[in-house]
Amino acid sequence: MACFERAVSSSMALLLLCFVSLTEGRELLVGGKTDAWKISSSESDSLNKWSERSRFIIGDSLVWKYDSSKDSVLEVSKRGYETCNTSSPIAEYKDGNTKVELQRSGPFYFISGAPDHCQQGQKLTVVVISPRHHKMISGAPAPSPSQFEGPAVAPASSAAGLRGGLVVAAVVLGGLVLM
C-alpha cells in the first residue's frame, strides 16, 4: 500500500510539473544575442528578420540588453513605429536590461529611443499568438504583422493544454500502478 501511495504522490507531482510547464512563458533574448539592439548592418541581419523566424505566444517575455547611457527601448503604436515617433510611447524602458512580457495576442511595436536610430532601422515588430493558435499552426511560418490590422484577438482558453497534461499524468500513473 505504501508503494501505491508513493506512486500516486509522484504522479501528482508530475501532473503539477506538466501543468506549470505548459502555462509558463519563455524569456527570449531580442535578436537571439546580447548585442542585437542596434542599427543593423544589413536587411538580412535586421531584428524583424529574426522576429519573422520566431514564434511568440502569450506569456513569453522579450529581453533586451543594451548600453543604457546610449539607448533605450520604446513600445509604440503602429503609427509611431511607421513614423519613428519617439514623443508619445506606450512604454519607455531605459535600464539596459529590459524585459517585456507579451500579455496579449496581436502585434507589438518597438523602436529605439536614441536619436535617428529608428530611421536607420533599429526597430522591431513582434506578432504574438495564443498558445492554442500556436499548437494548431506548428510548423507553419510565423504570421506577418500586416495580417493584423484590427484590434488584438482575445486569448483562447488553455483547456487543451490542461487536457494534455492530464493524459500524460494518467499514462504515468497507470504505468506506476502496474509496477
Automatic annotation (TrEMBL):
Cell compartments where the protein resides: Cell membrane
Signal peptide location: 1-25
A cellular component annotation (GO) from this entry: side of membrane
Gene3D superfamilies on file: Cupredoxins - blue copper proteins
Keyword Metal-binding on entry: no
Entry annotated with the keyword Aminoacyl-tRNA synthetase: no
Domain Phytocyanin per the UniProt entry, residue ranges: 26-130
Keywords of the record: Cell membrane, Disulfide bond, Glycoprotein, GPI-anchor, Lipoprotein, Membrane, Signal
Entry membrane topology: Lipid-anchor; GPI-anchor
GO MF terms, alphabetically ordered: electron transfer activity
Pfam families: Cu_bind_like
Family: Belongs to the early nodulin-like (ENODL) family.
Official protein name in the record: Early nodulin-like protein
Native source species: Actinidia chinensis var. chinensis
